[in-house]
Amino acid sequence: VNGRRWQCNRVMTDDVHRADALVTASITRLKAHASAERRDFMGGGYAPSAMEGLGVAVPVIRAEAKRLAGELAGQPQLVIAAARSFAAGNTMEGRQTAYALLGRCRAAFDLLDTATIESLGKGNDNWASVDSFSCELAGVAWRRGMLDDSTVQRWARSKDRWWRRTALACTVALNRKAATRTGDAD
Asked: How far apart, in whole angstroms, are the C-alpha atoms of residue 133 and residue 64?
């Protein structure tokens, strides 16, 4: 597994360019479903952020992640490159799409390591992005043993309130009975 995780840091230049193009097209599709009312609501107090808010509803984001997962099936390196590109694009909906995409692509998810997971969460500055990251990516990785307890404990002690919230929200994944059958409150 460690050898496979190392591969997530070996992304070819062509993959980066292809991922950037896929993400640009994806953001364009998301923007076609944007609502100024939703954008103003999210940024106007519900989930204010330094990131750009597009005003796209969660079901549309999930549908786009599902569409991309189908298009990128069998290409885990490209999925990871796309997730990084979404995060670098600095839109709330782009980040949420990245987290949902990785959640749908087990082969890519299995390649993630602590550094990559943390890089995908870096810059989250609102509860919506943090909760999406925590519940769809970081918490699941923790439950699967891909993140150790000390990493989540470090987040819990962070000076950054959003990393502290991430640590707390990651516990949700431990207690999803559908995923764990019994939950893991301890």
From this structure: 17
Map residue 23 onto helix, strand or coil. helix
Question: Which of 50, 62, 126 is CA-nearest to residue 99?
Answer: 62
Helix axes 76-88, 114-121, angle to 10 degrees: 30
Tens digits of pLDDT across the chain (186 residues): 455 544 444 556 778 999 999 999 999 999 999 999 999 998 888 888 999 999 999 999 999 999 999 999 999 999 999 999 999 999 999 999 999 999 999 999 999 999 999 999 999 999 999 999 999 999 999 999 999 999 999 999 999 999 999 999 999 998 876 655 666 666
User: Could you tell me if 49 and 94 are in contact, meaning their C-beta atoms sit under 8 angstroms apart?
Assistant: no
d(CA 81, CA 83): 5
pTM, entire model: 0.88
Q: Which three-class secondary structure state does DSSP give residue 173?
A: helix
Distances (CA, A) of 131 to 19, 80, 82, 100, 174: 24, 20, 20, 12, 14
